[in-house]
## 1
Amino acid sequence: KAGVTQTPRYLIKTRGQQVTLSCSPISGHRSVSWYQQTPGQGLQFLFEYFSETQRNKGNFPGRFSGRQFSNSRSEMNVSTLELGDSALYLCASRDLTGIAEAFFGQGTRLTVV
Amino acid sequence: AQTVTQSQPEMSVQEAETVTLSCTYDTSESDYYLFWYKQPPSRQMILVIRQEAYKQQNATENRFSVNFQKAAKSFSLKISDSQLGDAAMYFCAYHSGNTPLVFGKGTRLSVIA
């Protein structure tokens, strides 16, 4: 099976712009979670989607949003980018019928200048 | 809310020696899962080992083993015969029910040749 695929791998954006990140989960996995990783804060949970519905949401401002499509692919959008949004964004997929361990993509490195 | 604490930001070990990484967690649940993930410089988060809380036997995967103390809410990772390729960030994670994975802040492990 192919692993979790995140695109793009790297992004440089300007403050005030918006950005969309994409995640394709492992085939058959219907749960997709997004995490923001920064050196100071570690891994912080953004949101989780399951069968196109947001199931859990972390403590992030409304500028951060996401969605999931019928093929389980997920997108994350950040509007009005701030310098502090610079981070590694990780996507994880899970098969909730099993032990529910998460499988991660390689991440998207977002730099806001 | 569940929390995961890794009290060692950095550790180092000589090649071929043994090292133990600490993790404690806080939960009121009785049924949950614990994981150790490894993140090498390539950024890919890789599952190292998992433990189901209802199992008393400590999990083992080749050179990796855990010491799971449910009453003390402790979940340490032991790496035996350390290799240069073990150098990475190690994250302890907790999962229960429909909640998302909760991560500790990580321990950076260096392996000295």
Note: The longest strand of chain A covers residues 42-50.
## 2
Amino acid sequence: AQSVTQLGSHVSVSEGALVLLRCNYSSSVPPYLFWYVQYPNQGLQLLLKYTSAATLVKGINGFEAEFKKSETSFHLTKPSAHMSDAAEYFCAVSDRNDKIIFGKGTRLHILP
Amino acid sequence: EADIYQTPRYLVIGTGKKITLECSQTMGHDKMYWYQQDPGMELHLIHYSYGVNSTEKGDLSSESTVSRIRTEHFPLTLESARPSHTSQYLCASSTSGEIYGYTFGSGTRLTVV
């Protein structure tokens, strides 16, 4: 069975500081991994995905994530936070049969 | 530009009313999903469909029902709304064979009073 654990339901960073949102996964097969972002009163939007090509994946809005098999992690980072990054972020894993399991989400707060 | 549309965006309705939440996609995706999202953000899969005339219940038990008569349309119906149904409902779609992830609609925020 697959699962995703997001560490920290709320994360606060100062504007201009590094953003780090943590995600660990469990999968019995090589996984596909995703990060989604949800802005207030919106649906989820795909930020980036890992599908077994490069382990460092670049996404939209300056975000990137690194797949580390030895640590079963897929943490999301951005070098410099912007106020517009305040949103909810979901890590997700797929078993390659198209069914995606979502984490519980992390709400990112940006402090001025 | 959204390729998956949900209507209405917001709905306030009285207890006992029947409601249908609409979801349509123009991408020709064969798979469609309904999620219920609670105030704490967590997403719960309540229904999914892998094609026309195919529907399955998801991980979270729901009193709602769905139908899939056309590829592009996946409506969700509540026969008798209750305050416990107050939530955000998100529709999503995906295509078989390639992993693009899911495409989500903007959601319907339902309040039952």
Note: The mean pLDDT of chain A is 92.
